[in-house]
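re: ur question from earlier - yeah i can do the single chain one, its not a big deal. heres the input i used so u can compare w yours
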Amino acid sequence: MRRKTLIAAALLMSALCLKSNQCQSAELKKPITVGFSQIGAESAWRTAETESIRSEAAKRGVNLKFSDAQQKQENQIKALGTIIAQRVDAIILAPKVEDGWGPILKQAKAAKIPVVLVDRGVNVPDDSLYTTLIASDFVAEGRMAGQWLAKKLDGKGSVVELQGTTGAAPAIDRKKGFEEALRNYPDMKISRSQSGDFNRAGGKQVMEAFLKAAQGSNTKIDAAYAHNDDMALGAIQAIEEAGLKPGSDIVVVSIDGVKGAFEAMVAGKLNCSVECNPLLGPAAFDAVEAVLAGKPLPKKTIVKDRLFDQSIAKDAIATRQY
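and the output i got, formated as C-alpha cells:
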C-alpha cells in the first residue's frame, strides 16, 4: 500500500512538472505587446512609415497598440502614459520634436519598458531613457541636397528654404547640412526661410508668401529647397499658379523620395529628391526582439539614403515602394 502511494505521488509530481513546463512554454510563446506612438499622417512619407510598422507587427504576430498624435506632442505624451499603464513589453516612438520627453521616458524606464526611437531623435539628459534610435542622417541629407543644387546652379543663385516642423530633428539637421554645403559657394544665398510644417498645404502657403515677397522687392528666386517632398509638391503648385514653370524657372530640390516626388520629377516639375527611407518596421521590431532577449544594441543605427534627380527618375520610379 505504501509503495502504491509513493508511485501515485511520483506520477502526480511528474504530471505537475509536465504541466508547469507546458505553462512555461506557453508563456514564452505568448505574443508580445508593443505600443507605437506616431506623430500623425502629415505626409506620404509618414503614412508609409506607419504602414511599415503595422505590417511588420502583423507579420510577426505582435499585438500592436497604435496611437496617432495628430501632429501634437501633448497627444503623444498622453498616449505614452496610457501605453505605459497598460504594461506593454516595449514602445516604438516617432517623436514630433526633440525636446520635452524626459519625464515620460523616465516613467517608461521606471516601468522597465524599453523604448525604440524611429526616424527622429530626442534631447534628454540621460540617454539610457531610450534603448536605440533607428534613423537617417538628416545632416547628410541636407548636405547632399545643397551640393546637388550648387552644381545645378553653377554655384550662384538665390534660394528660398521651406523648413520642416520647428524643433523637429529632421528640420534642424536638414537645414544644418544644407547650410554646410553652401558655405563652399559664397555666391549662393538663402534669401528667405520659413516653416511649412512638413505638409503640402504648408508648403504651398509658404511658397506663395516667398513669391509675393520676391515680386514686391523685384528680386528673383532661382531655387526652392524643401525639407520634405510634400512641401515641395505644395510649392510646385504655388509656382504654377504664379505663372512660372517649376523645374525650369525655379529649380526645386527636396528630401524623402516618395513616389509623388518621382512622378513630379518625371513630369519635369521637381528637379531632385534625396531619399529618406520610411520602411523602418523590420529594423524597429528586430530591435524590440533583441532588447527583450537581453541582447546589446547600438545607440544609433543609420539608415542609408540615396539621391535621385530627373535624369534617373523615370527608370527608378517603378522600383519605389512608397
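The longest helix spans residues 2-28. not sure if urs matches, ping me
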